[in-house]
């Protein structure tokens, strides 16, 4: 990486051309237009994996779930039972194709044509690599990694997926949401001029906590509570707020050159919350001098806000996941308001478009690139707040700091470990910066 610079890092990304899909081209595939059953493996059988499986089964194509894999048998059994109740005719998962354990993904991938990757994001790079190596199309949830070595792996594999003409869709579903598509197309066409500033938010009350059980090893406890450990989650600025950060990059058509910010554990400070912060506020500076402000927090009992707004030389825009999109000109006159009537569910639409392309024998989607770059933006934001420094893109992409365990086993020790009081070490800005970047 010593000679790997920003230009190298960005030169192949599809966002440079402002696109979310590529021009379709024929697949080197056995699929004949809508006639063959597409075999799907689900890797990661929690709530998101089950939801993604339903979306795939409801995509309108001839699909069967033929393999399932999870580190935990109870997760797999629950997902299988729920899917079997409604989709028995589309489920072909005998016990011999139910795989449990850290290496379960390898066997499941071999059984399928398309792989759904919905484990905690720390595992995404190695699972993605295995799927593309095996020649499979992929749907993978965001974020696509939790550290910079993981990002480099995903980009390396993304290039191989393009070479093999394997479709890859990433679960940044706003890219498949009609109000975002319509509004951002108008922005890219110049409706409000050049975007010079923006604000993006994911402020909410936080997520679940799963109490520690006496019989659990440290590895199992952290896996069960994956949201609170960076090697699994990346912190919520990466795992959750990546949606809004991705919108900023999409609107700008580029990525920030530097990020600075602040964050802390202000309210969720107990041992149940692992090592992550409960609030972040960052400024993303782009090479044209524009700045997008980003805010995310997990404060219970406070005002929730999940939306984006941008100001431009000829107007402004407001966007939200609630199917809202409004553009105004420089005088405040409304020039576009999105009509949400009849808009498809974006979670479902991701799968509708992916499986339609596969059924038609088309190579159409290379989402892994912008998924990796927006994930990287969130990671740089985390590093800026953890260290209390301005982190440039150039500096970040040189980092070889991995936060992943050396190996995966139930008796292995992940990073970090709790002290005698059950509390985990938490980043303090200005201290031990070398641990993070």
From TrEMBL:
Gfo/Idh/MocA-like oxidoreductase N-terminal domain mapped to chain residues: 38-164
Cross-referenced Pfam families: GFO_IDH_MocA, GFO_IDH_MocA_C3
Residue stretches making up the GFO/IDH/MocA-like oxidoreductase domain: 180-315
InterPro entries, per the entry: Gfo/Idh/MocA-like_OxRdtase_N, Gfo/Idh/MocA_oxidrdct_glycsds, GFO_IDH_MocA-like_dom, NAD(P)-bd_dom_sf, TAT_signal
Protein name according to UniProt: Gfo/Idh/MocA family protein
Organism listed in the record: Sphingobacterium tabacisoli
């Amino acid at each position: 990486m010593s000679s790997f610079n920003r230009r190298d890092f960005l030169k192949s990304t599809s966002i440079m051309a402002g696109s979310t899909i590529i021009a379709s081209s024929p697949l080197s595939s056995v699929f004949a237009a809508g006639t063959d059953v597409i075999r799907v493996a689900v890797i990661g059988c929690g709530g998101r994996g089950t939801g993604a499986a339903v979306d795939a089964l409801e995509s309108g194509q001839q699909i069967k779930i033929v393999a399932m894999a999870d580190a935990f048998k109870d997760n797999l059994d629950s997902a299988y039972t729920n899917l079997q109740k409604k989709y028995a005719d589309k489920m072909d998962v005998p016990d011999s194709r139910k795989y449990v354990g850290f290496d379960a993904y390898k066997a499941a991938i071999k059984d399928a044509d398309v792989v759904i990757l919905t484990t905690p994001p720390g595992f995404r790079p190695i699972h993605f690599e295995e799927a593309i190596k095996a020649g499979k199309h992929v749907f993978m949830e965001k974020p696509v990694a939790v550290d910079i070595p993981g990002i480099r792996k995903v980009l390396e594999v993304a290039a191989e997926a393009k070479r093999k003409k394997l479709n890859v869709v990433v679960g940044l579903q706003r890219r498949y949401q009609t109000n975002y598509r319509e509004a951002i197309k108008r922005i890219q066409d110049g409706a409000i001029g050049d975007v010079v500033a923006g604000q993006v938010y994911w402020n909410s009350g936080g997520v679940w906590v799963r109490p520690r059980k006496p019989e659990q090893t440290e590895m199992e406890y952290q896996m069960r509570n994956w949201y609170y450990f960076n090697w699994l989650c990346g912190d919520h600025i990466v795992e959750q707020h990546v949606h809004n950060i991705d919108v900023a990059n999409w609107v700008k058509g580029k990525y920030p050159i530097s990020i600075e910010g602040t964050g802390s554990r202000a309210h969720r400070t107990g041992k149940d919350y692992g090592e992550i912060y409960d609030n972040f506020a960052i400024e993303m500076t782009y090479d044209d001098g524009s700045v997008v402000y980003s805010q995310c927090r997990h404060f219970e009992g406070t005002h929730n806000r999940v939306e984006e707004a941008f100001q431009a030389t000829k107007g402004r825009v407001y966007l939200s996941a609630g199917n809202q999109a409004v553009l105004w000109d420089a005088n405040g006159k409304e020039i576009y308001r999105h009509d949400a009537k009849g808009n498809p569910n974006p979670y479902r639409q991701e799968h509708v478009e992916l499986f339609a392309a596969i059924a038609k024998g088309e190579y159409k989607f290379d989402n892994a690139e912008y998924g990796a770059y927006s994930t990287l933006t969130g990671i740089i934001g985390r590093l800026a707040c953890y260290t209390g420094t301005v982190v440039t893109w150039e500096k970040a992409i040189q980092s070889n700091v991995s936060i992943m365990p050396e190996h995966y086993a139930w008796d292995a020790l992940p990073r970090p470990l709790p002290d005698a009081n059950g509390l985990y070490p938490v980043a303090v800005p200005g201290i031990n910066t070398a641990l993070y970047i």
